[in-house]
Amino acid sequence: MSKNKKMDIIYEDKELLVINKPAGLLTIATEKEMFKTLYHQAREYVKKQNPKNKIFIVHRLDKDTSGIVVFAKSEKVKRELQENWNSVAYIREYLAIVEGNVKTKKGTIKSYLIEDKTLKVRSTDSKKGSLAITHYESLASTKAYSLLRIQIETGKKNQIRVGFSDLGYPIVGDKKYGGKKNPLGRLGLHASILGLKINKKEYKWSARIPKEFKLLFKNELDVYEKVED
């Protein structure tokens, strides 16, 4: 794994730059924050290698979610990935710490999601929204918290956060979707593993698990990392 002072670089070649994004950092700019973004850091990094180099957003994570983000180094690769993301991304795995002891240890959440005028996503009984499919497995639980391994079939905005809030197990630190506890000092959601199939090549990357996650579930996360290495 190569390293950069500002970025935790997981993988890099002529076409791709894969980074472990920290929590609290935007993937791309908003009107309020133009430069405090992972995109800005990635752009500065490739420009230092060669001023003619470019970088392109492929997908994004929420500001308070950590984990794997992929950038393309050409517009052609960006288009190939974005236009076929649900088929090329054959693994999209997250780790989450939620409030409460999740009783059903393995399951699937299917819901239709819509975004309201306040930019908050919610599920709806009608089929006017977009279908979101989330699979989960409980790796460990205490009376207060559960550690979940999550795989998503669809990449809908906030689908994990809304899904577990609807089940009554909001992600820790997630005030927006009903979270009341914040033992980590951040949102308890981490994009841990990503697998892509591109041009007959198959990639699988894992992102270092944040130290604060191990404050609650160290033994279980040590085992998880060993299995996925």
What can you tell me about this protein's structure?
With 229 residues, the chain is α+β, with helices and mostly antiparallel strands. It has five helices and eleven strands; from the N terminus they run ββαββααβββββαββα. Strands 1, 2, 3, 4, 5, 6, 7, 8, 9, 10 and 11 form an eleven-stranded mixed β-sheet that branches. Strand 6 (106-115) and strand 7 form a beta hairpin. The longest helix has 18 residues, at 211-228. The chain is globular. It starts with 7 loop residues before the first strand and ends with a helix.
How are the SSEs ordered, and which strands pair?
Layout: E1 8-12, E2 16-21, H1 38-49, E3 56-57, E4 66-72, H2 75-83, H3 85-88, E5 89-99, E6 106-115, E7 121-124, E8 130-141, E9 145-152, H4 159-167, E10 189-198, E11 201-206, H5 211-228
Parallel strand pairs: 4-10
Antiparallel strand pairs: 1-2, 2-4, 3-4, 5-9, 5-10, 6-7, 6-8, 8-9, 10-11
Helix-strand topology string: EEHEEHHEEEEEHEEH
Global structural class: alpha+beta
User: How many strand segments?
Assistant: 11
Tally the helices. Answer: 5
Percent in helix: 10-25%
Q: In one word, what is the shape?
A: globular
Distance between the termini: 13 Å
Low-confidence stretches: none
Tell me the radius of gyration: 18 Å
Biggest pleated-sheet summary: 11 strands, mixed
Question: What is the beta-strand fraction?
Answer: 35-45%
pLDDT average, as an integer? 92
